Amino acid sequence: MFISTQIETKKSIHSVVVLCFLCLLSSNTFADNKCKPLMVGLLPDDNTEIILDRFEPVRQRIEKAIGCPVIVAIPAMGKNHTYEDLVKHFIEGKIDVAYLGGLSYVKAASKIPTSLIAMRKKDTKFRSYFIAQRSLNIKSLKDLKGHSFAFGSSSSTSGHLMPRHYLMEKGINPSKDFKGEERFSGTHGNTLRMVMSGQVDAGVLNSNVYDRYLQEGKIDTSKVEVVWVTPGYSDYIWVSRESLNETQKNKLSEFFINLTPGSNEDSRILKLLEANYYISPKPKMFSTLRKVATKLNMIMDK
């Protein structure tokens, strides 16, 4: 269920409404339009307020592009791992269109027929950053042995699946070779904060999140450093249920793919989406990821 959650700030704990009906303010615009509201689900891979704030201008543009109300929702953030909530609601038909990580996509596609809408070009070669406390002088994956370590969400592609795969390729068993039990921070931002604060010696996270936080001056590089960058792999993708109206699917795909770098209006949207430009994805782009997820028992082979 998409509900309100509690976010802890430095001064207090306050309720954050997890956007069940963002389209209410624009309902008059579509009063004479009989099309059903489009339910859009967003991956909860960062702070709820950040995600919703960044996506609101995009939501408005999507409404304009498809001519129907758009309702945005993020699964409740008051739990440790919420990626599964998004996949569950998508499979159950409570969400029409979802922004999914690669692992979430292959999980959903293993359960129901889906249609691929659009994908950022850079997500065809996405990367994860392994980070560590600078004072520990960790310079390679093998140096991580014997140190405490944090993944992101257990269902994250860039924060768990592919990093786990590359660790095991290097002969490192995360279940045995790290200090203490396996830790899952829940989000990429949490992983970064855990390493910077000294809660753990090292961790792994989405390269986009790290780079954005670095640009915003939120990373103390005297305390944390990137020690290894993964090879590229396919990750984030916009996907719909196959049963969604073909006209809406086509309009959605055209909206993303027609976003033009250099255009004043589109440049702002592309920046909010952390995109250079979009392409039409193909299922085969995720074949390697699907094999890795199957090998690591994160999905069942069909």
* Major sheet summary line: 6 strands, mixed
Structural category is: alpha/beta
The total of beta strands comes to 13
Give Rg in angstroms: 19 Å
- SSE order, as H and E? EEEHEHEHEEEHEHEHEEHHEH
Q: In terms of per-residue confidence, which ranges show pLDDT below 50 for 5 or more consecutive residues?
A: 1-28
Strand content: 15-25%
Shape: globular
Number of helices: 9
Termini, distance in Å?
A: 28 Å
Provide the residue-averaged pLDDT: 87
**Percent helix:** 25-40%
**Largest sheet strand order:** 4-3-5-12-6-13
Question: How would you sum up this structure, described in words?
Answer:
With 302 residues, the protein is of the alpha/beta class. It is 33% helix and 19% strand. It contains 9 helices and 13 strands. It has helices spanning 48-66, 83-92, 102-109, 157-169, 188-197, 207-215, 246-257, 264-272, 287-295; strands spanning 5-8, 13-16, 38-42, 70-73, 97-100, 114-120, 128-133, 149-151, 183-184, 202-206, 224-229, 237-241, 278-279. The strands form 3 sheets. The protein has a 6-stranded mixed sheet, sandwiched between helices. Strand 3, helix 1 (48-66) and strand 4 (70-73) form a beta-alpha-beta unit. The longest helix is centred in the N-terminal third of the chain and has 19 residues, at 48-66. The chain starts with a strand and ends in a 7-residue tail after the last helix. Mean pLDDT is 87; it is low at 1-28.
